[in-house]
């Protein structure tokens, strides 16, 4: 897979799970979609992967995080409560609501420079957040938003 | 379609849109699924219908409201802001987040006796709520929860 925005040295040093989320985002971009990716991790293993499918499926609910949750399938509440969700971009209110519904206790966020999601609501509900503000994630979204502002606004309800 | 839980006189006097949401819920129940339905209404017309698909599609994100939004397709922000969402049951945090993401200003809720969703969060964000506490909706959910407590708990992350 082409990874044109990546500093390769940085990429290979990166957390494996955030790397997998970025790979999902790039899959989406290569399909002509919005480059946001996510993985759901349980006890050190990826159990769901996903990326935004607005363009590809005409979907208004398949944000990256939602797609990863959907692809993980039906899980018990006990399993969700041992999971960490990785996402390349700060989670919007919808994805935040899904995280709260299922009681996912930890979220690792690639960046919140290009879009600030509902992080306050997550924190208020005791979700542990790690914001990496990773340059690859920021660069990927900045380029996308510059080129496709209308599509981006549609995805965030603006 | 069989409507065994309905008081027919009440049903025919009911708001057409809540009636359509109940019809969706009953479709779901007839498919062996969780009986929660929803319709998205724009300028007096239903533009999206849906029901919970956890059982039918193994979906963890297709709650009734999410399915209605998905089936309405990609809409402009201006259109969402003229919509009303009807749902047979108080919206969970995920569906609440979707309502907030797209700026839907009004939600009509069939009932919140069997499950209280994130109504406080909706109100705090100036979403206008009408809670009907309709007996048909309450009865439909009560019977379902009594018969399928494990499935119900799974759907609300418990």
Automatic annotation (TrEMBL), chains A, B:
Record-given protein name: Nucleoside deaminase
Top-level lineage group: Bacteria
For whether the record's keyword set contains Zinc, the answer is yes
**Which species is this UniProt entry from?**
Chitinophaga filiformis
Instruction: Write down the InterPro entries for this protein, in alphabetical order.
Output: APOBEC/CMP_deaminase_Zn-bd (IPR016192), CMP_dCMP_dom (IPR002125), Cytidine_deaminase-like (IPR016193)
Domain CMP/dCMP-type deaminase residues, every copy: 12-129
Supply the alphabetized keyword list.
Metal-binding, Zinc
Task: Provide the coiled-coil residue spans.
Answer: none
Q: Does the keyword Metal-binding apply?
A: yes
